[in-house]
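ingest -> validate -> predict -> emit
validate: passed (alphabet ok, no gaps, 375 aa)
predict: started
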Amino acid sequence: MKILVLNAGSSSLKFDLWETTAEMIAADSDLLLQQGEVERVASMAEAIESVFARVKIPIHAVGHRIVHGGSRFTTSVIIDAEVEKGIEELSVLAPLHNPHNLEAVRAARKHLPDATHVAVFDTAFHHTLPPPSYAYALPYKYLTEKGIRRYGFHGISHRYVSWRFAQIHGKVRADYRMITCHLGNGCSVCAIDRGKSIDTSMGFTPLEGLVMGSRSGDVDAGAILYLVTQEKLQPADVANVLNKESGLKGLSGVSNDMRDVLKKAKTGDEQSRLAVDTFCYRAKKYIGAYLAAMNGADALIFTGGIGENSPEIRAQICADLENLGIALDPTENTSRSREDRQIGKSTIPVWVVPTEEELLIARDTLRCILGIAHE
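emit:
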């Protein structure tokens, strides 16, 4: 089956075209036929037109990445009018993401009305979070009436790399306790206990947790109140600061790209050094917290653009964790490869597993159509 995977952003649309079947999934032999990106689009309808101008073969189904599924969507689903409505209603929880995702869904459904369209949610993998993990200590009515709780994101990536690690070892995800670190422009850590996500660093929105490219990660709520009451910032201004002017970009004053910040730090720039150190320290803290939450781990896995490609950042995050059973092999850590590989043969093995979110979306699309279990 030919499956088009769409990942819609605010001003771009990424696409992959996969050929897969149930047998190909079982053999891990799915074929990537084509991929690309449409940037600086005026509208998602225009972007969709551009994609279909490039894709010349018949498409049987379309898999859509949807950032926020709330508590309503706990697995991938075939999109109908009711699902569209649900995604739209959840836009209040993800105003920077769901509206663009939904615009792509509607444009693609209009262009391919006879194809099956499937929604694959970034939050779905985290629906197994236990109440102490997802509840914020706010008045209970905000949880029950307003849905203010931890949802978690990057679930597609965390789900894929944890599955892939188990597959490499001829086992299943439920055989392991894993800590997966997705480090890129957006960053999150996930504690996966016997196949289930039990905690993750992103929360009600993708803003909480680790230091990111331009997102702040954890900030005392009192500091936000200070910006509003003392600095007289409006909510939209605060949202812009936290999402677009903070993180590596805000601390370094240089860039939201770790490569640029590292380069500047090596020249002795104090702000850039602080940005790198804070980024690594925050990740180290979450790893330690999740070791406590699961009473240990069977693997620590790095993925994402930084996680896969920056040995220096991996080394700094893992430094001085020997007493917790984590140590890198310097030679293996600095080797350049796009392959799955072990970079630390310590008590808790450390691995790099490149993420394949689009492949998982394609597979889930097929599974929804065939009515077979998700992995």
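The longest helix spans residues 270-294.
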